[in-house]
Amino acid sequence: MNDVDATKSAAVDADPDDTALADVIAQLRRAMRRSARVNDPANTLSVAQLELLSCLGENPDSRPSQLARLLRLAPNSVTTLVNSLHARRLVARTPSSTDGRAVSLALTDAGEHAVRQWQSTNSAILGRALRDLEPATRTQVTSALPGLRELVHAIDAVVLPGLLPGEEGGGDPERETRPSRPSRPSGA
């Protein structure tokens, strides 16, 4: 049994505290998403697009298949997202330096701005909400940050072994090809 199967199996026997934590995290994600839409209505990017941009910001020059594995999305879903982000000039495609048929992705200046704007919106939402909490509750929340960071790393270690930057096996052995372009008549 691999780590992912073990995780699925363990979910059946989940501790009530684990279930409560999962429920609170899900509620927090939904509240953040709702609030971000209210606080930044001009942002027309989907959460999936923003997640891909953020992942690409954390993993520059990634290939589409690497992003698919990191985000646990189907490759065709990543291709659709990348195509829409490329059309909006938020993502740039560049040929691989080692294989001219392969492509790597990078954020454009506009893509970096979109990520910073999303992070800024989320920080502002959390800042306002934290200020509205009782001091003791605010202290409890902020004191939990180191443990939550470790939890993120522990979850990633289970579902993304060898895929995170700097880890052994983090390379992308598969080749990504650029979308074919219609041929132009000579002299055009």
List its traits:
188 residues; mainly alpha; Arc Repressor Mutant, subunit A; two-stranded antiparallel ribbon; 2 strands; disordered C terminus; WH_DNA-bd_sf; HTH marR-type domain-containing protein; WH-like_DNA-bd_sf; HTH_MarR-typ
Summary, kept brief:
It comes from Terrabacter carboxydivorans. With 188 residues, this protein is mainly α. Helix content is 61%, strand content 5%.
Count of β-strands: 2
Q: Strand share of the residues? A: 5-15%
Low-confidence spans: 166-188
| Top-tier CATH class | Mainly Alpha
Please give the domain count.
1
| CATH fold group | Arc Repressor Mutant, subunit A
Q: Rg from C-alpha positions?
A: 20 Å
CATH evolutionary superfamily? Winged helix-like DNA-binding domain superfamily/Winged helix DNA-binding domain
The CATH architecture category equals Orthogonal Bundle
Output the number of helix runs: 8
Mean pLDDT, all residues: 82
Q: How far apart are the first and last residues' alpha carbons, in Å?
A: 58 Å
- The side-by-side strand order for the widest beta sheet comes to 1-2
Overall 3D geometry?
globular
Largest sheet report: 2 strands, antiparallel
Organism: Terrabacter carboxydivorans
Region (Disordered): 162-188
Domain HTH marR-type: 18-157
Protein name: HTH marR-type domain-containing protein
3D structure, described in words:
With 188 residues, this protein is mainly α. It has one domain: Orthogonal Bundle (Arc Repressor Mutant, subunit A), CATH 1.10.10. The chain is 61% helix and 5% strand. It has eight helices and two strands, in the order αααααββααα. The chain has helices at 3-12, 16-39, 47-58, 64-71, 75-87, 109-132, 135-143, 145-159, and strands at residues 91-95, 103-107. The protein has a two-stranded antiparallel sheet with strand order 1-2. A hairpin with a 7-residue loop joins β1 (91-95) and β2. α2 (16-39) crosses α6. The longest helix has 24 residues, at 16-39. It is globular, with a radius of gyration of 20 Å. This is HTH marR-type domain-containing protein. Pfam families: MarR_2. Residues 18-157 form the HTH marR-type domain. InterPro entries: HTH-type_Bedaq_tolerance, HTH_MarR-typ, WH-like_DNA-bd_sf, WH_DNA-bd_sf. Residues 162-188 are annotated as: Disordered.
